[in-house]
Amino acid sequence: MQILKQTKTELGNKIELLGNKNFKKILVIGVFHGEEPQGKYLIENYISLQKNSSLLFIPCLNPDGLKNKKRTNANDIDLNRNFPTKNWQLTEKNEFFGGNSPASEIETKFLIEVIEEYKPELIVTLHAPFKVVNYDGPAKDISEKIGKIISYPVEASIGYPTPGSFGTYCGIERNIPTVTLELDEKCPIQELVEPVNKIFDLLNNM
What we know:
Elements: E1 2-8, E2 14-19, E3 26-30, H1 38-49, E4 56-58, H2 63-68, H3 106-118, E5 122-127, E6 132-136, H4 140-150, E7 154-155, H5 166-172, E8 178-182, H6 189-204
Parallel strand pairs: 3-4, 3-5, 5-8, 6-7
Antiparallel strand pairs: 1-2, 6-8
């Protein structure tokens, strides 16, 4: 796979958009939160097996958080609260802090540029730990197919407010089907490989 677009973070780590020349408009994103490393491993494993995949991948959106083993990026900002949505709000400075202003972060800007430049028609993000398929926008059908593969329930709401979230930015406000696959963090990563590869195959064959 080729590096189609890249940038460097506050700490100088690379964020890369990977894809092949004839890519589908389906984007898969790993590691929004640094303490949720599963996505990077699963994406890189799939790419190693399927070098000709037509999907677009960002294996690790938050390499600084991954390096520091924390939810937030190097500026202590939760990237999944930093998008310029209608419901973005300035909140207290904790692990869910969405920044002093929306789209303030390198990682957020990079992902917004990818959305605008490559115009994905379906987006899947890999998170942990809730063991559920959550979705925003017109993504119920694909979420149900994903849920059947991995035997997770499908939920339109995660159960708590997420101002400035990526799902709101893409799914609700831009009507791009957006799936948040919340993986079981207690499950050994090797046991997630087979179902997640089947999910990627499903997307690859759409």
